[in-house]
Specification:
The structure is a single chain. The chain is an all-alpha fold and 95 residues long. The chain is elongated and about 65 Å long.
């Protein structure tokens, strides 16, 4: 295997490892944050009102989900810019 191919393979593995860690983090957050926000807000904020606590939990779940989507879009646009930069440098070399 050439040096460039080995470097590309290593960087691809590192990138997929980073994506997997983010996915695991947000999956755990999506399970823990709404449940804990429900019980904590029911006990300390809403004084036993389960309806308001449920609304708080739904909002917390949506915030975690929005955070994951925003991070994914930012990461995708960053990788798109990097790939465009590589294409430009390769086309300059061909000239």
């Amino acid at each position: 295997m050439s040096d460039k191919a080995a470097a590309a393979n290593t960087s691809a593995q590192a990138a997929s490892r980073g994506v997997l860690i983010k996915l695991i983090f947000f999956s755990i957050s999506l399970a823990v944050v709404p449940i804990s926000s429900y019980f904590l807000s029911e006990k300390y904020i809403w004084a036993g009102n389960a309806n308001y606590a449920a609304i708080t939990a739904v909002c917390a779940a949506n915030i975690v989900l929005f955070g994951y989507i925003a991070l994914s879009v930012m990461e995708d646009s960053q990788s798109f810019k990097e790939s465009e930069g590589k294409k430009l440098s390769e086309s300059k070399k061909e000239r």
